[in-house]
Every structure is written in structure tokens, then in C-alpha cells.
């Protein structure tokens, strides 16, 4: 039967398989290569279970590169050179129920004679192999692709306290595998330092540990206090081991830190009791675990059973349900964003989830609050989406105290007291006062940002003071600050004399910016840097755009109806017209004098840039592409023509590969330009 004549159901199955595999590959890359997962282990596991179920039903549709057939990660060059694996570092098959555990144990009992099982904690970290020659540590390697090669992280491994540099028994060759992780206490200290330095905190200990192990500077690795548990003997020469626990005993005598609390079991009941005990103690551990591992104790039995292309047949990982905890909501705060949207946030008693302490979670909007019936004083169950973002799952209504009342956002802005109105056909309630201080603060932060007017030196604290002390009521008032220099210095709002003059000079210099920067800074919904440039290339000036109709704006490349409507509404608003008049009076540039176009070799082509290029910064690469008529977008889509990828390219590279998009390095970009 020809493919086109296949039953519709098979076509649907193939389509779902394609989407599932694509989605799983994307999340594999986020987890293994970028150390920045977007979804929880549980959500990922559900995707894999669905994929396995379909492939079990339609084995003829299994492909060699399906995520069920390959290990998830890829070796990267960020930490060092790539090293070949002597022994594959395979992943484990995940199971989620008591029945699956019993089936695994009983199957091996039928195949082997009186097998013993070892049950251990499954540490949530980054896998690493250590190689010793004549008792000396010679190499430390990450899992990488799990089969062929991993990254050399020897220098970083040597500064981890738990890594043994010399063994008492100098075996000719001894390779072991363990998990690099970060204790909760060490993780909190790292994040406290990140906040002190004004840097972005890490999402969870696993991400922090993985990123730290791949650091190029071992001093940073040392100061972050990583930990290591060894959980397997990979191979040895010079001594023979009969069992896994015998190898553990040998390692302990060498001073090697092996995973603690492991238990030897003989029956399925004993295995399940050990798994249950680990789960019950999960919250008391100083580190995060994401499951329990069940493995054969006898090494000869392991050799006999072997492995599939992806997982050993002699071990299995039980995954506990997503961690969630109960807490009590003490208040619900309302905040106002740049567009006037009011967002409710639950503030609750602090709880520990996935390695971090959380005490806040968004409640999104009134509909979300109503659907869950969330009230102040309620006990709620909180979990982490993607093990990163805290979310309220449900209200424990049997614990609701007497006298609670439904929470209503109301019809008044919590910041300025102006009317707040629910937008038609949406869940958004917005403050209708364009001069609302909360909106103004967010608006100014956007206006002075790098993608807009790029006015350096004006941070959130300074902007808050400028608004609070009455120096700024609109974004245009920034250009009046020069006349208030002495008062600014006297009050120390921006800083002392030198810093104040520096900021005022940056504001003055921004008047000469290209008009697309001003357009970006106006904060029109949907109009970012790329769209603003396209609009200015088409219309030539802010004034011309202000006079354009929706139909004329829709002629601009990639411009949609919603954005066109928002532009027309902005320029027709009297408050906006007043702000534009103030800009004009201050001498802010409205006209595109030089398009920056050298030629139009890249006209009609959309590029995305990712990773670190050898000689060009991303900003320079974008300018080069745009000077030849190309468009630079921030994310990969079906409309992308080329991905320019440098060192340590992340998920964008994977997505471009999946979509069949042409991938260029810096030399390829230059060659394309020359052609």
C-alpha cells in the first residue's frame, strides 16, 4: 500500500510520534546540555511514557534515533576537550508504580538464580566518571552522550572535596561513576552571593551543580562547594569484584564516598519497603533526590543480562510523584505591570521545594482565583512547575478556617486608585490611568533598556526615587532632568556629582539614537526591536508612522493585525501625542537619516543568532545581517531561513535541526554574504 493510501489513523499516529520525539529532544537538550529544564521530571516522564506506549503498539514505527533508543545528552566543549568513554554511561529505565517494581524483580528472579537487589537513593545531579591509574586520579569525565564521549572536567573535579585524588591500593586501572550534586545549604549560599552581586540566582541545586562542574575557572567550582557520591564500579584491572556491595566496601577502605543508606534485598516486598523508606525520608535529606534505584548486586549476573542501546537490563529507577507541600496563604498582593495589567500573588508561609525556599506564587488573574476558590487563610498545596516556578495546585478546603471570604481583585488600581477594568474577551483586569506610577516605573525601565534608548546608569532604584520625588511623570520627562542637575545631586537620587553627570550625558546622547530605538521604547504592545526596525525602514520616520492607517502598517513585513491596531491606537491617544510633542521639543530624533543598508543581499531572509561566535559579538553579527537587508529574530520558527550558531549553542540549534533550517557558523555567514 502506498504511503498516501495508509489509513488515516496510522497517519495520525506518525504525526503524534513526530511531535512527541521533537518535544522530548527539545527537553533533553534543555536538561542535559543547557542545565536549564523547562518542565518537571514528572511532566517529562509522562511524555516518555506516551512515546513508549505508542512504539510498543506500533514497533514498525520505531526509529534508531527515537528518544527511547538513545541517551539524552550530548557532549559539549565548554568545560574542556572531549574524551571517549571506556564504559558507556547509560541512563536507567524509569518506572512509576509498585506493580512495575514487582514485575522487574520477578522477571529477574525467573531468569537468574536467587538474585540479590540493592536499593539506593537516586541523587539529582550530574553524572561523572573518575579514572584512576596506579592509584592516581588521571581523568574526570561527564556523561556527555553516554555512549561515545563526554567532557573532560578533571581540573574542576580535583577541587571537589569528595573527589579522592589518590587511592591506598594502587590498582593498574580503576574507573568509578558517581553523581555530582549540591547540598541545599551550599546552594542557598551560592544564591545569596548571586543576589549580593546583582546576578541572576540559580533555579535549583541540580542546575547550579551542572553549570559549576562545566565552569572554565576551577576557582569558581571550588568556592561553590560541590559534593559527590559514587554509585557504581565501571571497570577495574588488578582486582576482581564479585558484587556491587563488595566494590562499595573496597571503595570505602580507599576513602571514597559511596552513596549511603543502600539496602540489600531478596524479595519484591523487601525492595518496595526500601523504596518506600527512602521516599518517606526524602524531606529530611540535606540534598535533593528524584527517585530510588534498584540494581542487581551480582556483577556476573549484570554481565549476563547486558543492556539495550539505551539502558542496562539489570537496573531500574523508581520515580517518586512530583514534590508538593502544604502551606497557608497569609495575604494576596496585587502588582501593576507596564501595560496596566493587575497580577495577584499569593504570599504564604515559607516551604522548601526542589531545593529552594519559596513563599510566593502567582495567582494569575481573577478567573484562576475563582476556579480554585483561593482565599486568604486557606491551606494550599504548592508545587514547582518544571521544578523551577512555584505554583498553587489546589486548596485544602477541609482545613479552611471559619470566616474566610472570596478574594476579589476589585475595580480600583491598588497603586494609584484609578478605575480598573476587565478587558473584553480576556482574563486581564487593567488600570486605566496611563500616568499610574507602577506602570510608569515599568515603562521607564523598558524605555532606558538596551534594546530601546540604551541609557546606562538608570536602575530600578533610581527610577523609583525619580518618580516618588516628582521628577518624572512620563517617559518624556527624562529629557527635562538636565535642568534639575543641582537638585538631583543634592538629593543623591542618581548618585553623587560624577555619576549624575554621567547619567545626564547618557540621556542627552540618546537624543541622537535611530528612531527605531525610540519606537521600541514607547512600549507599544507587540513592537519590539525587530518590528520597530522594519517599521522605520518602511516609513522612514515616527511622524510618518503616526499618520499611517492599519492597512498601510499591514504592508510591513511580518506585521499582524493586532500589532497594527495597537500602533494606530497609540498614536491616536491624546496622552501619547502629548508625550511625542515633548520628545520633539527636547530634540529627540524622529527620522531615519541612514538606513544602515549596504545592499539587500539578505532581503527577505530571517536569521537567528545563538552561541558565541569566534570574532563577532551577537550585536555585531545582527548589525552585519541587517546592513545587508536581513532580519534578525530572537527565536527559531518555521519562518527562520538561517541559524547562525557559535560555540555552546543551545536549544535553538536543536530546534533549527528539527525544522531542517540551514545552520551557519561565522565563516558560513561570511561566505553566504560573499556569494
From TrEMBL:
Keyword terms of this UniProt record: DNA damage, DNA repair, DNA replication, Ligase, Magnesium, Manganese, Metal-binding, NAD, Zinc
InterPro entries listed in its UniProt record:
BRCT_dom, BRCT_dom_sf, DisA/LigA_HHH, DNA_ligase, DNA_ligase_CS, DNAligase_adenylation, DNAligase_N, NA-bd_OB-fold
Q: Provide the BRCT domain boundaries.
A: 597-675
The cofactors required by this protein are: Mg(2+); Mn(2+)
Q: Which reaction does it catalyse?
A: NAD(+) + (deoxyribonucleotide)n-3'-hydroxyl + 5'-phospho-(deoxyribonucleotide)m = (deoxyribonucleotide)n+m + AMP + beta-nicotinamide D-nucleotide
Positions of Zn(2+) binding? 413, 416, 431, 436
Q: What class of enzyme is it?
A: ligase
One GO cellular component assignment for this chain's record is:
cytosol
Q: Which CDD domains match?
A: BRCT_DNA_ligase_like, LIGANc
Name the Pfam families on file.
Answer: BRCT, DNA_ligase_aden, DNA_ligase_ZBD, HHH_2, OB_DNA_ligase
Cite the GO molecular-function annotations of the record.
DNA ligase (NAD+) activity; metal ion binding
Active site (UniProt): 122 (n6-amp-lysine intermediate)
Q: What biological processes does GO assign it?
A: DNA repair; DNA replication
Summarize where NAD(+) binds, as residue positions. Answer: 41-45, 91-92, 120, 143, 179, 295, 319
Function (record text): DNA ligase that catalyzes the formation of phosphodiester linkages between 5'-phosphoryl and 3'-hydroxyl groups in double-stranded DNA using NAD as a coenzyme and as the energy source for the reaction. It is essential for DNA replication and repair of damaged DNA.
Family membership, please give it: Belongs to the NAD-dependent DNA ligase family. LigA subfamily.
Kindly provide the name given to this protein in its UniProt entry.
DNA ligase
Name its species.
Mitsuokella multacida DSM 20544
Amino acid at each position: 500500500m502506498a504511503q498516501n493510501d495508509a489509513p488515516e489513523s496510522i497517519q495520525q499516529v506518525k504525526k503524534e510520534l513526530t511531535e512527541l520525539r521533537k518535544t522530548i529532544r527539545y527537553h533533553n537538550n534543555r536538561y542535559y546540555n543547557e542545565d536549564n529544564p523547562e518542565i518537571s521530571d514528572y511532566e517529562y516522564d509522562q511524555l516518555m511514557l506516551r512515546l513508549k506506549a505508542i512504539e510498543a503498539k506500533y514497533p514498525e514505527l520505531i526509529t534508531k534515533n527515537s528518544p527511547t533508543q538513545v541517551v539524552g545528552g550530548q557532549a559539549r566543549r565548554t568545560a574542556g576537550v572531549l574524551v571517549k568513554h571506556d564504559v558507556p554511561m547509560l541512563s536507567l529505565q524509569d518506572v512509576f508504580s509498585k506493580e512495575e517494581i514487582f514485575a522487574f524483580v520477578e522477571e529477574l528472579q525467573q531468569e537468574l538464580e536467587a538474585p540479590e537487589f540493592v536499593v539506593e537513593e537516586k541523587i539529582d545531579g550530574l553524572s561523572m566518571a573518575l579514572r584512576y591509574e596506579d592509584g592516581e586520579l588521571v581523568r574526570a569525565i561527564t556523561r556527555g552522550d553516554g555512549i561515545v564521549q563526554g567532557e573532560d572536567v578533571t581540573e574542576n573535579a580535583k577541587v571537589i572535596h569528595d573527589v579522592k585524588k589518590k587511592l591506598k591500593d594502587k590498582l593498574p586501572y580503576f574507573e568509578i561513576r558517581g553523581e555530582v550534586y549540591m547540598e541545599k545549604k551550599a546552594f542557598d549560599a551560592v544564591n545569596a552571593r548571586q543576589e549580593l552581586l546583582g546576578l541572576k540566582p540559580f533555579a535549583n541545586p541540580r542546575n547550579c551543580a551542572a553549570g559549576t562542574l562545566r565552569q572554565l575557572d576551577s576557582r569558581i567550582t571550588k568556592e561553590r562547594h560541590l559534593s559527590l557520591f559514587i554509585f557504581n564500579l565501571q571497570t577495574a584491572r588488578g582486582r576482581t569484584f564479585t558484587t556491587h556491595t563488595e566494590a562499595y566496601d573496597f571503595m570505602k577502605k580507599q576513602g571514597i564516598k559511596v552513596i549511603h543508606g543502600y539496602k540489600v534485598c531478596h524479595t519484591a516486598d523487601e525492595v518496595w519497603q526500601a523504596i518506600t523508606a527512602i521516599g518517606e525520608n526524602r524531606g529530611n535529606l540535606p540534598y535533593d533526590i528524584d527517585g530510588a534505584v534498584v540494581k542487581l548486586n551480582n556483577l556476573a549476573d549484570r554481565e549476563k543480562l547486558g543492556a539495550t542501546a539505551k539502558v542496562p537490563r539489570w537496573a531500574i529507577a523508581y520515580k517518586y510523584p512530583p514534590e508538593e507541600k502544604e502551606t497557608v496563604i497569609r495575604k494576596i498582593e496585587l502588582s501593576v505591570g507596564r501595560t496596566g495589567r493587575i497580577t495577584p500573588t499569593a504570599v504564604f508561609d515559607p516551604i522548601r521545594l526542589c531545593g529552594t525556599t519559596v513563599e510566593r506564587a502567582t495567582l494569575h488573574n481573577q478567573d484562576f482565583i475563582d476556579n480554585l476558590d483561593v482565599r486568604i487563610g486557606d491551606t494550599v498545596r504548592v508545587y514547582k512547575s518544571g521544578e523551577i516556578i512555584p505554583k498553587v495546585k489546589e486548596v485544602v478546603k477541609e482545613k479552611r478556617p471559619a470566616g474566610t471570604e472570596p478574594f476579589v481583585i476589585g475595580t480600583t488600581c491598588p497603586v494609584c486608585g484609578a478605575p480598573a477594568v476587565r478587558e473584553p474577551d480576556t482574563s486581564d483586569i487593567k488600570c486605566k490611568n496611563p500616568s499610574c506610577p507602577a506602570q510608569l516605573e515599568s515603562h521607564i525601565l523598558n524605555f532606558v533598556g538596551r534594546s530601546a534608548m540604551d541609557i546606562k546608569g538608570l536602575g530600578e532604584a533610581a527610577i523609583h526615587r525619580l518618580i516618588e520625588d516628582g521628577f518624572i511623570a512620563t517617559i518624556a520627562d527624562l529629557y527635562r532632568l538636565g535642568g534639575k542637575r543641582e537638585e538631583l545631586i543634592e538629593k543623591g537620587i542618581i548618585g553623587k556629582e560624577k555619576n549624575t553627570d554621567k547619567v545626564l550625558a547618557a540621556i542627552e546622547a540618546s537624543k541622537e539614537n535611530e528612531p527605531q530605538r525610540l519606537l521600541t521604547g514607547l512600549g507599544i504592545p507587540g513592537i519590539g526591536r525587530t518590528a520597530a526596525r522594519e517599521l522605520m525602514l518602511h516609513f522612514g520616520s515616527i511622524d510618518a508612522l503616526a499618520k499611517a492607517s492599519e492597512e498601510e502598517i499591514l504592508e510591513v513585513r511580518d506585521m499582524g493585525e493586532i500589532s497594527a491596531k495597537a500602533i494606530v491606537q497609540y498614536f491616536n491617544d491624546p496622552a501619547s501625542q502629548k508625550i511625542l510633542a515633548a520628545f520633539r521639543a527636547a530634540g529627540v530624533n524622529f527620522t531615519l537619516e541612514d538606513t544602515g543598508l549596504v545592499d539587500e543581499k539578505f532581503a527577505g531572509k530571517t536569521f537567528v543568532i545563538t552561541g558565541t561566535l569566534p570574532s563577532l559579538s551577537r550585536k555585531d553579527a545582527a548589525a552585519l545581517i541587517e546592513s545587508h537587508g536581513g532580519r534578525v529574530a530572537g527565536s527559531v520558527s518555521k519562518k527562520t531561513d538561517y541559524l547562525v550558531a557559535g560555540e555552546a549553542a543551545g536549544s535553538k540549534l536543536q530546534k533549527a535541526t528539527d525544522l531542517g533550517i540551514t545552520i551557519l557558523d561565522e565563516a558560513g555567514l561570511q561566505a553566504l554574504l560573499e556569494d
